[in-house]
Design a protein that fits this description.
Layout lengths: L5 E3 L22 H4 L3 E4 L3 E6 L4 E2 H5 L7 E3 L5 E8 L3 E5 L3 E2 L3 E3 L1 E7 L9 E16 L6 E21 L6 E4 L4 E6 L9 E5 L5 E3 L6 E4 L3 E4 L4 E10 L7 E4 L2 E16 L7 E10 L3 E2 L2 E6 L10 E2 L19 E8 L5 E11 L2 E2 L3 E3 L12 E3 L3 E8 L11 E3 L2 H8 L4 E11 L4 E4 L5 E14 L7 E9 L2 H4 L2 E3 L1 E10 L4 E10 L8 E7 L1 E2 L14 E11 L4 E2 L1 E11 L14 E11 L3 E4 L2
Length: about 600
């Protein structure tokens, strides 16, 4: 709510002499009946002048505590308000896969004993295959495609045998025996799986063949037992075509285990020996610890409107501010690894009417400098929406909205808001940590309006003030014409013109009285420091008060309207709280005499 500053001036009545109040009268007369007590004093009368205290632009502003007009450390004024929006949670559901379907292989292994003697005989294991396959049809659709993934699970690759009635008690897999892992559909030159061996005393990863496990010594398996090769899987380096997320929400990963090498067993006199060799695995359910690929989670950024509060009426009500270069800053801390594209619609509300507004940002995957708003992953991004190019700001982060922003701030709105906010992840390969419970990230948004009170040529502001308390000097005086003169010292870089209306002791305007501006122009000044006189201009003001008909009794002062503009002002200075305005040598000359009621 605005306030009128009351400029009180006391005039000492010197024109009315006590002579008119002392005379000899006959007590037997009733003066109120027999003598007209209204006396007219002719000629021009002057009431001695007075001055107001120097008051600063800070006094004129008279800002409320919630005002969006603030000063910086130098005292410069700006429309400034910051909104911290509630954090936006970006969640990506986990990818947890049940234990795979394992398809063990049973192969008849024949040991050739041509001499039928009781000695060690051997057999060749050649490309004995088995496979296991992870598959799930309801994987999160937050993940669009998979290139690779980190995993963390241990499995056991197993070898065993079944006796076929020939009393085979043991089989020994000779040093150099191999078990190779191949992802279904992979190029054999690629290493699709990364794993470690938990038993490095008996096994190693073969030199030059990173997906092949090689036996370091002879290892014997007794009948009824199983040889287990412990393997710790850490990464799927690349999903071949048709694997990974091969369709939306559908996951598949199939691996073949291929055994090669020499196996031996003690010979028997019966001749050839056969067993069922079983190649299999024990594998648990898994979670993708992190994924590399394209993701598209739901990102709902919501920003509360900026309430433009505490604006003085002289800067608000139908006033064309013509701000030189207001801007709005979007400061967003994107704690996720995603690069997020943002576009929205900015609009404003003034006197309960919502303007159409204007769009900001571009569609997803478009990257046009000066238009696109991209929030880089794990980074704080700052974008500036401005009317014109801002000095010192990279053009990549300066969104020029031109006259749309000018129109929004030309007459100060009641509210500014961002609507229809669309935030979408750019479709590019990134790595996201998931673990068993998925991923959750914060996106924190700060929304700042900043507009230095630095005006263009179309500025028009209106400020109303009251100069009163003349009644003590002009009580019971009927005036028909008066001249009000004053000197105005101006340190504000604006032209002012003064218009006025006369008021009585009750603050009511006279309907039959005109106040004509004889000389009402205040020259612009430029006072840059508190207490300084440099840059202050002096203008002489003269206002003529005329009573058109009837009487003007108990004249108490004027309601004065200052209209400011930048006509002819060449500098482009921001208003500062130390700039001052002062009225000095204010005086009233009464023309054509006054009528005094002597009752």
């Amino acid at each position: 709510m605005s306030k009128r500053r009351l400029i009180k001036a006391t005039f000492l009545t010197a024109a009315l002499s006590p002579f008119f109040l002392t005379s000899c009268v006959d007590d037997s007369y009733d003066l109120s009946k027999d003598i007209d007590m209204n006396i007219t004093i002719g000629g021009d009368l002057s009431i001695p002048g007075s001055s107001t205290e120097e008051f600063t632009l800070k006094d004129i502003m008279d800002l409320e505590d919630n005002s969006v007009i603030l000063t910086d450390e130098q005292g410069n004024y700006a429309l400034s308000k910051i909104i911290d929006a509630d954090p936006t949670l970006v969640t990506i559901d986990p990818v947890n896969i049940n234990a795979p379907r394992v398809n063990p292989t049973k192969t008849i292994l024949t040991f050739d004993a041509p001499f039928g003697i009781n000695q060690e005989v051997q057999a060749q294991v050649q490309d004995v295959r088995m496979d296991f396959e992870f598959q799930k049809d309801n994987v999160t659709t937050d993940i669009i495609s998979l290139t690779s993934a980190d995993v963390d699970f241990s499995a056991a690759l197993t070898l065993g045998f079944e006796d076929r009635g020939q009393s085979v008690e043991q089989i020994t897999f000779k040093k150099g025996f191999t078990v190779r892992l191949e992802v279904d559909g992979q190029n054999t030159a690629e290493r699709c799986i990364t794993f470690d061996l938990e038993d490095t005393e008996n096994y190693r990863i073969k030199d030059g063949e990173p997906q092949t496990i090689e036996f370091l010594k002879d290892i014997t398996v007794m009948k009824g037992n199983t040889l287990e090769i412990p393997v710790h899987f850490t990464r799927i380096n690349r999903f071949p075509e048709g694997q990974g997320l091969y369709e939306s929400g559908k996951f598949r990963f199939k691996t073949n285990i291929i055994a090669n090498g020499t196996a031996v067993t003690p010979g028997l006199p019966e001749g050839n020996i056969t067993v069922n060799l079983e190649n299999s695995a024990r594998i648990p359910e898994i979670s993708l610890e992190s994924v590399t690929g394209t993701v598209d989670p739901e990102i709902n950024i919501s920003i509360d409107p900026i309430e433009v509060e505490g604006i003085p009426d002289f800067l608000k009500d139908n006033v064309n501010l013509d701000l030189t270069n207001p801007y709005i800053k979007l400061k967003i801390n994107n704690e996720s690894p995603l690069t997020v594209n943002v576009n929205a619609h900015m609009r404003w509300i003034r006197n309960r009417v919502t303007a159409n507004g204007f769009p900001i940002g571009t569609s997803r995957n478009e990257n046009t400098p000066g238009k696109t708003i991209l929030l880089e992953g794990n980074k704080i991004s700052e974008y500036y929406l401005s009317r014109r190019r801002l000095e010192g700001i990279d053009t990549k982060y300066n969104i020029i909205v031109g006259e749309d922003l000018y129109e929004m701030m030309r007459i100060v709105p009641d509210q500014i808001e961002l609507t229809n906010i669309e935030a979408q992840a750019v479709q590019e390969d990134i790595t996201v940590d998931l673990h068993k419970d998925g991923a959750t990230y914060d996106v924190n948004t700060t929304y700042e309006l900043y507009a230095p009170l630095q005006f263009g040529d179309e500025l028009s502001i209106v400020y109303t003030d009251t100069i009163n308390d003349w009644g003590g000097d002009l009580e019971d005086v009927v005036i028909r014409k008066a001249i009000v003169e004053m000197d105005v010292l101006n340190g504000i870089p604006l032209n002012f013109t003064i218009d006025a209306k006369a008021i009585d002791v009750n603050g009511n305007e006279y309907s039959n009285v005109l106040v004509n501006p004889v000389s009402n122009h205040i020259k612009p000044g430029l006072k840059l420091a508190e207490g300084a006189d440099e840059g202050v201009t002096e203008s002489k003001i003269q206002l003529e008060i005329i009573c058109e008909n009837g009487e003007m009794k108990d004249l108490d002062g004027l309601i004065v309207t200052f209209t400011g503009n930048r006509e002819g002002v060449s500098n482009n200075v921001t208003l500062n709280e130390s700039m001052t305005l002062k009225i000095t040598n204010m005086r009233v000359r009464i023309k054509g005499g006054v009528t005094v009621d002597m009752n």
